[in-house]
Design goal:
- The chain is α/β, with parallel strands linked by helices.
- It has a single domain, classed as 3-Layer(aba) Sandwich (Rossmann fold), CATH 3.40.50.
- About 35% of the residues lie in helices and about 20% in strands.
- The chain has an 8-stranded mixed beta sheet, with helices on both faces.
- Helix 1 packs across helix 5 and helix 2 runs antiparallel to helix 5.
- The radius of gyration is 16 Å and the shape is globular.
- It starts with a strand and ends in a 5-residue tail after the last strand.
- This is PIG-L deacetylase family protein.
- Keywords: Hydrolase.
- Pfam families: PIG-L.
Length: about 240
């Protein structure tokens, strides 16, 4: 795994160490950007892992790999993320990569960071890279890993395009991101290569609309939605 990381400052004094895992640059902010900003604001140590290089399947230009990394670093700064880790596996080809190799990338960062809270892709995804990352996250955060909570996030233009013949993303937990929605939108805007015009799900208008919809379901102005994958508690 590429050891390149982005460091945004000293360790904070919060109770949790947070790791958000995404298959591609921008997945982390689309799925959990407001929540990551909230963690950072309360003093938690926040990390992001981008598993693939995020460009070769879309662009015939090697320089795009570094551009995506620069965008990921800029996005992290907006959210207050401390470090961005890059796995550098092939974009849109994780279904051709042996499962143990994807596991190794995720496990190495989990072992290094020692997170208490992990966010990852949902299993209900059109994108096969996302599903592969979910499977490897479940392996890397298995009981005994020290991870106390694993939550799966939705990814606009993937989770919502699954179709009626498959299991759908059904959130079981909502995070109030009312105070952090602007930070999420500004952070996503750093991904100039990934933003789209409305009504595409990866537009500013759509991101705000999704947050309002999830917020209405939870009784707040804006929210991000998650499925609880696993939680270990010392008390009931």
């Amino acid at each position: 795994m590429d050891s390149d990381t982005h460091t945004g400052g000293a360790k904070q004094s919060g109770d949790d160490t947070v790791l958000c895992i995404g298959a591609h640059p921008d997945d982390e902010v689309l799925g959990a950007g407001g929540t990551l900003a909230a963690h950072a604001a309360q003093g938690d140590e926040v990390h992001v892992l981008v598993v693939t290089e995020g460009s070769t399947a879309q662009y015939d230009d090697p320089s795009m790999v570094e551009q995506k990394r620069e965008e990921a670093r800029a996005c992290a700064d907006r959210l207050g993320v401390g470090e961005v880790h890059f796995g550098d596996l092939p974009d849109m080809r994780l279904d051709d990569v042996p499962h143990v190799e994807v596991n190794a990338v995720v496990e190495s960062v989990v072992e290094r960071v020692e997170p208490t809270v992990v966010y990852t892709h949902a299993r209900q995804e059109v994108n096969r890279d996302h599903r592969a990352v979910y499977d490897s996250t479940v392996v890397a955060t298995r009981p005994g890993s020290g991870v106390e909570r694993v939550l799966a996030y939705e990814t606009p233009s993937s989770t919502d395009w699954v179709g009626g013949g498959a299991d759908q993303f059904e959130p079981t937990l909502f995070v109030d991101v009312t105070d952090h929605l602007d930070a999420k939108v500004a952070a996503f805007a750093e991904y100039e290569s990934e933003t789209r015009a409305f009504p595409h799900p990866r537009s500013e208008e759509s991101l705000r609309a999704r947050a309002r919809t999830r917020g209405a379901a939870a009784g707040v102005a804006a929210a991000e939605a998650f499925c609880l994958v696993r939680e270990v508690r010392e008390t009931p």
